[in-house]
Structure formats: structure tokens, C-alpha cells
Amino acid sequence: MRHDHVITSKQLSRSDIETVLDRAAEIRDDPTAVADRHAGALLGLLFFEPSTRTKMSFETAMKRLGGDVVDMGSVESSSVKKGETLADTVRVIEGYADALVLRHPKQGAATMASEFVDVPLLNAGDGAGQHPTQTLLDLYTIRENAGLEDLTIGIMGDLKYGRTVHSLAYALSNFDAHQHFISPESLRLPREVVYDLHQEQERAQVREHESLEEILPSLDVLYVTRIQRERFPDETEYQKIAGEYQIGVDTLEAASDDLTVMHPLPRVDEIAPEVDETEHAAYFEQAHNGVPVRMALLDLLLGDEGGEDDE
Ligand code: NCD
């Protein structure tokens, strides 16, 4: 996958995914082995939307590979404020960096931007579209906690606007997972995603539910998401739904002892803090996995450029 853009999880085959996860596991076991591997390499960060984990874990990953970052900074302080187009911005920054990470509020922005650059461009979230690098760390966490074979997963919350959900659902179809989608009617998965999942998975194992109760006992993983308030066209619609689909310690009484609870974070009130103390909680581990997984991905994309001892 060297020199590829990473725009959507649809482009990732099972073997691509396994390559990244295996490399991430190696790196996590011995991070010092890659400490200077990309010395001198620079990663360009272009975040047009807020980010804590994604931006900081990319930055950490690049620095732990011996490289560094150049950061556009906030939209407010960049030339975007003067009306510069995204196409011009990426064309300029590709001249400064060996790879680019882009987060943008507009769905499709990463696809468009990638057409203007030759260095690898990684989509770190495009509106309600996709977030494929989050998916890789989600899959890593699932593999570690529950395994990817014969998986039964519940994905709950804002399935309409949640880009982490869209990316995860496509990627899981490579593993023939049983996917249960739990949401209010108004936040169901976009119909085109459901359609694609049925097309991609020979024996599609995709079910939609409005209640968690009926399905919870059968789940290996419960992936909870935040209601994407910033994407609601109407605040009153958000208010109607906010506060629904919350998980507390009492909710989990009906779950299997081995249930793994995940969340891409940030959470608002979807998971009560008491759940953090249970064996189920894997969301902080999940966020930490962002570093070895993004190290692995950057290493594979950058190849031996600026590095040593490439195999
Ligand atoms: C997610 C995102 O930005 O899509 N955050 C993240 O990258 N971990 C999820 C969210 O904002 O709810």
C-alpha cells in the first residue's frame, strides 16, 4: 500500500487491514526498533475541524518514528480565512511534507483533495463520510479483546452522521461479522451504506434495531457513539434525541461477562463514568491504540524514505 491515499475503508482489503494490524502489534511490542526509521520525514496536518485524539496520535506516531509534523493550525489563523480553496491549500502543503492528514467538515473533501496531490493523503474524517484510520485502531482493539473471527458486534448511537460507524461497518464486512445497528429511526445508517453492506458481504449479516435490550446478551462488542450534534441541521431535532441510548452499569447486567465496550471518543453522556471501572471498558485502550496503529500505517505508506534497515 506504499504511496497510496487512504480515503475510505472501502478501499481496504482484509489483507491490507491485517498487514497494518500485524505491523502495529510488532511496533507496540518493540517501539524502539522504529524510533529513527523515518528521521527527517514530515507529516502535514490539516485539521479544518476540532480534534484531540486523531491529531495528537498522528503527531505522536510521526515523532515516535523519528519524524516530525508541520501543522496548518486552526482555520482561523490560516489563509483559509482569506478564502483560499482546499485544492490550493493541499497543493502548497504537499511541497512541505512527505504525507498529509486531512480532516474537513465536508463529505468528499478528502477524495477531492487527494486528486491534487502526489504524496499520500490520509482522510482523518470528512464530514459525515468516512474515518478510515479510526477504523484501523478500532479493528486492532476488537482483535485484541474479542477477536475478528466469528464476531457479533452491536454499533449504537448516531449511525446516520457517525463517520466512524460508516468506516467500521464497511471494514467489518471483510470479516463476515454479524453486525447489529442500534439507533432511533431518525439516526439509522444511511440507506446506501446498508445497500453496500448487502452487496459486499455474500451472506450479509446486518440487522437494524431500535432497542439494545433484545440483542445485548449475544454481543461480543458494543461500539457506542456520540450523537453528532454539529451535523444536525436543526438543534431541536438534536434535543429530541440527546440523552437517549445511554449505557450504565445497570444496562450491562444483561451482557455477557466478556462483552467489550468501545467508543471512538469524545463521549458526552453515552457511557456513564461508572462503566470505566468495569472489565468491559476498552475505550481508553482503544484511544491509546491510535499511536501504534498510525505508526504502522505511516511506516507502510512512507516505505523506506528517510529511513534505514527497510526489509
Ligand atoms: C470521532 C470523529 O471525529 O469522527 N472522533 C475521533 O476521531 N475519535 C468521533 C466523534 O467525534 O464523535
Automatic annotation (TrEMBL):
Tagged with keyword Translocase: no
The Aspartate/ornithine carbamoyltransferase carbamoyl-P binding domain, residue ranges: 5-144
Top enzyme class: transferase
Binding site for L-aspartate: 82, 163, 226
Pathway in which the depicted protein is active: Pyrimidine metabolism; UMP biosynthesis via de novo pathway; (S)-dihydroorotate from bicarbonate: step 2/3
Gene Ontology biological process terms from the UniProt entry: 'de novo' pyrimidine nucleobase biosynthetic process; 'de novo' UMP biosynthetic process; amino acid metabolic process
Assembly: Heterooligomer of catalytic and regulatory chains.
Record function comment: Catalyzes the condensation of carbamoyl phosphate and aspartate to form carbamoyl aspartate and inorganic phosphate, the committed step in the de novo pyrimidine nucleotide biosynthesis pathway.
Name the UniProt record assigns to this protein: Aspartate carbamoyltransferase
